[in-house]
Amino acid sequence: MRSEKGIVAAAEPEAAKVGRDILSAGGNAIDAAVAVGFALAVTYPAAGNLGGGGFLVGSIGREKETSETPQENLSSVALDFREVAPLQSTSDMYVKAKESSSLLGHLASGVPGSVDGLLHALDSWGSMSRDQVLAPAIRLAKDGFPMTQRTHSMLARKSTMNAMLKYRASADLFYPGGKPVPTGTLFKQPDLARTLDLIRQKGREGFYSGDVADHLALEMKRGGGLISLKDLKEYRSVERTPIKFPTSDGFAISMPPPSSGGICLAQISSLLEGYPFSTTEAGSARHLHLLAEAMRRSFADRNQFLGDPDFVDCQTQLLLSTDHLNKLRSSISEDVATPSSNFTSSPQGVKESEQTTHYSIVDPAGNGVAVTTTLNGSFGSKVVVPGTGFLLNNEMDDFTTRPGVPNLFGLIEGELNGIAPGKRPLSSMSPTVWHYSDGSVRGVLGTPGGPTIITNVFQVLFALDRLGLSPELAVSMPKMHHQCLPDQIYVEQGHSESVLQQLKALKHKIVTRSNIGDFQLITHLNSRGWTGISDPRGGGASF
Ligand code: GLY
User: Domain extents for the chain?
Assistant: First the structure.
């Protein structure tokens, strides 16, 4: 999709159209982001959500065709609407509990942040009313939309189905008559429409108190979860300072802790400075080896040092300091893989759910907004709150639930990411905005994929910025991933066999895996306007 005006790229086409319509009606990128966020909660229930959380990174403030010096009035924002651990949670709450309890059912949920986050963004930087941005989502929930093939297939997955059927409201909504809603069936969600309408009428009070909150707290009591009315009342999203790092001819901004995304992107980018690359080297053994070595070092830091900055000192300055990065860079050999054990004493690695979703928006004035939002696993905890129509997250699994044991994504994390009441679990979500040196927006990037989010966002940015690839190729080219532990390079299908053999000769262990990510990219094409690329691996679209 190319456009002189704005573009919305999202993982589900109906929701992307909602964003486009908001832009056409004169809304800015934040208005569109809020409308798309609520619409995804209706049309993409595996990851779009009211019962989860996420991050928004934006370069905003530019009004339509009023400024000739955009760099003077674009401000960088990072909004953290990550879930928090309930007030009754404890550091060892999963140690003795059933092994699946951080993933499945009521105990797996953190206090949801999405509604507060989207409304905070609208109040702070939007231009439209709640009525305007919520109307499309309410209509889609009330009047229905044809069930997508993608959501149907996800619902039909045996493990998902067995888990969802355990919870009455989830079964009633998604499995009428015991079978997943068929593809193409008009899928109406009247309870969700009512919840959205309460949010429209009352703002955050429509979700965090009153009927919806009562239903949620009651269901928690019934199912052995911890979220209380007090938790809901006290939840607040937080504005943070984005992590800014240089690119060849400009800079990028991404999410700071409690996401590891921004720091890791900045580190990986810095570690690869000084290595010349050309377009013809894309996908070569040298390219993949150097990426893997930079990723390995950054993930070692991630797992050891990062957590919720309101609870622990993430030592951001140290991790991004020239001394530290020079030391890490000088330990890279072009001739052989460095064992991960050189950087970490932890026995294993990181594991996080890949079922997140991302959308990218640029408006006609050139404001750029990147939002990554999640329930963590596909359909989160699998629990629909009766009477409300929305699913709850299983984000508690992103904490170090059992020290030394890998989480859903195989990530083994440090004590700094331990559970505490009110604390946010460490994330890999990396909504990113890329800029020209004059400060105007050049691209908006993001993807789902647990820890592969960081490495995928980096690979697309690197492909555009350092390899000079086209946006289409940057997104579609086969991706790789290294997360320090386990000490191996994960590769998608499509890498050349001889490249993989050369990597093995450099002493890398190679593991082939399923598709990585569902990228939503918007980039600026100089005088030719914007292009939006929705990953061919997924079912999304850009308009
Ligand atoms: N739940 C996936 C992430 O936050 O990275």
Answer: 36-239+358-409
344 given a catalytic annotation = no
Using DSSP's 3-state secondary structure scheme, residue 182 falls into coil
pLDDT tens by residue, 343-378: 876 655 666 666 899 999 999 999 999 999 999 999
Q: How confident is the model at residue 71 (pLDDT cuts 50, 70, 90)?
A: very low
Q: Give the amino acid at 174.
A: F
CB 250 within 8 A of CB 433: no
Please give the number of the atom of ligand 1 that sits closest to the Cα of 426: 4
Cβ proximity of 9 and 533 under 8 Å:
yes
What CA–CA distance (Å, rounded) separates 95 from 89?
A: 12
Q: Is the CB of residue 355 below 6 angstroms from any atom belonging to ligand 1?
A: no
Q: Which atom of ligand 1 is nearest to the CA of 451?
A: 5
Using an 8 Å Cβ cutoff, are 125 and 414 in contact?
no
Query: In terms of pTM, does the model score above 0.90?
Result: yes
List C-alpha distances in Å: 439 to 252, 253, 367, 468. 10, 11, 11, 20
The pLDDT value recorded for residue 318 is 96
Q: Is the pLDDT of residue 66 over 60?
A: no
Q: Is 302 left (phi over 0), alpha (psi -120 to 50) or beta?
A: alpha
CB 97 within 8 A of CB 107: yes
In this prediction, residues 218-239 reach a mean pLDDT of 98
- C-alpha separations of 385 from 30, 104, 167 in Å: 28, 14, 9
Q: Name the residue type at position 14.
A: E
